[in-house]
Amino acid sequence: MIEVEHLSKRYGTHLAVDDISFKVDRGEIVGFLGPNGAGKSTTLRILAGFLGATSGRVSVAGHDLVDDPLKARAALGYMPETSPLYPEMRVSEYLTFRAELKLVPRAARRSAVERAMRDAGVEHVASTPIGHLSKGYRQRVGLADALVSDPPLLILDEPTAGLDPNQIREVRALIRRLGDDRTVLLSTHILSEVEATCSRAIVISRGRLVAEGTIDEIRAMRRPPAVCLAVRGDTERAVAAARAVTGVRTVLTPSAFSDDATGSVEVELDQEVDAGEVTEAVVRALVGADIGIRSISHRAESLEQVFSELTRGESTHAALPHEPGASTGSVPGTPTPPRKSKKGKR
Ligand SMILES: Nc1ncnc2c1ncn2[C@@H]1O[C@H](COP(=O)(O)OP(=O)(O)OP(=O)(O)O)[C@@H](O)[C@H]1O
């Protein structure tokens, strides 16, 4: 439904979108995920035909955006982050005006507006001036606008931005419903939005595509499992003892050992090992090296941490799947993101 090839956009000297390529298939709900300033709105505006690309190619529903812009644009409904609504116009009046601009034939306009209002859940405020609506309802009017020409593809820029939790739940449910018979690409900087609404995510950071896949695949792009131990004793000896255990990949010392020789070590394990067995062996090795163990825990790896690893900075790009020479993790084509540089031995 959407094909993006080597798309770049430069604002003056600033490269806001840097050589990204991806596809969205018919029927998918895809989250375009990235932190503020990542280049999401810029990309979506290009896809919607509102902004020219610096280089690259985009096709929508099989129509090239440059060679066949009218057909490409007719196939999509776009909701910008803040819809330029007219506050003095009534909802139905505004949508009728938008339907006319989108070349919905006069005879079909009334039913198109009614359908869009029904789908976006705004039919009961049809006669209300837009300026009297809450932000959540104005957002829905923006959605009705995107729907009024009944396009098979919806491109939604931060559809729940600025809404309260109830409104967010409602808009997400609405998007899922709309996704039953449409393709949806929505941008967000909120990971839970993608989990709640989308079948797949494309992750962008600093203008570059850093990962794509299902939520489970992205979750699998994790750092290796690790055991965190608070210990007392000689640092060098603790690190050497833990490192000698089979199944241990790396030993880190996140902070310097204090004067009374207490500190912590983070023992990263190989991906495929039995973590329990290796942990036992590490504990035995440390005790054997006369290291006191004060506490032990497993490093938690939430999806938020994976996201923050993926979008952390330039160095992250070095080992990600879209880069030549990227290393592969346990999921085919997925990366092993580099760890934060920490004081310690490897
Ligand atoms: N018209 C413009 N002129 C110059 N720079 C721009 C312009 N629009 C965006 N930028 C810059 O391009 C980069 C990407 O912006 P963009 O709005 O696409 O990011 P975003 O991922 O949508 O962020 P947000 O979630 O904050 O909206 C940012 O550094 C932004 O400052």
UniProtKB/TrEMBL annotation:
Protein name, UniProt field: ABC transporter
Membrane-crossing residue ranges in chain numbering: none
Family (UniProt): Belongs to the ABC transporter superfamily.
Gene3D superfamilies: P-loop containing nucleotide triphosphate hydrolases
CDD domains: ABC_DR_subfamily_A (cd03230)
Record-annotated ABC transporter domain positions: 2-231
Chain intervals with Low complexity compositional bias: 324-333
GO molecular function annotation: ATP binding; ATP hydrolysis activity
Keyword Transport annotated: yes
SUPFAM superfamilies xref list: P-loop containing nucleoside triphosphate hydrolases
InterPro entries, A to Z: AAA+_ATPase (IPR003593), ABC_transporter-like_ATP-bd (IPR003439), P-loop_NTPase (IPR027417)
Keyword vocabulary terms for this entry: ATP-binding, Nucleotide-binding, Transport
Keyword Transport: yes
Stretches for region Disordered: 312-346
Protein origin, superkingdom: Bacteria
